[in-house]
Amino acid sequence: LAIVDYDAVKYLGGSDKVDINNANVQAYRQFPGMYPTAAGAIGSHGPYKSVQDIYSIPGLTEQVKGIMKKYEAQFVCLPVNEAYFIDRINNGMYR
Description:
This protein is mainly alpha-helical. The chain contains three helices and two strands, in the order βααβα. It has helices at residues 37-43, 62-71, 82-85; strands at 18-19, 75-76.
């Protein structure tokens, strides 16, 4: 169940910044090259304490790390919100 009054809802895909702990992988589509590989890696790991933690995801190639680095300034790392964290890979919304 989504929290309507969640202060950081804009970081779930409604702005040019994305919360690496709570945003669904679809939010990364705005960054060319991030979806699906880099976005999937971020969404299937964590929670993170800082944006820098994404570079410690096991199995990332240097190419994927480079794509993440390109958009690093667009990522924020907010505390986990259970209402969103559990839906980072599959939130049940399909095109």
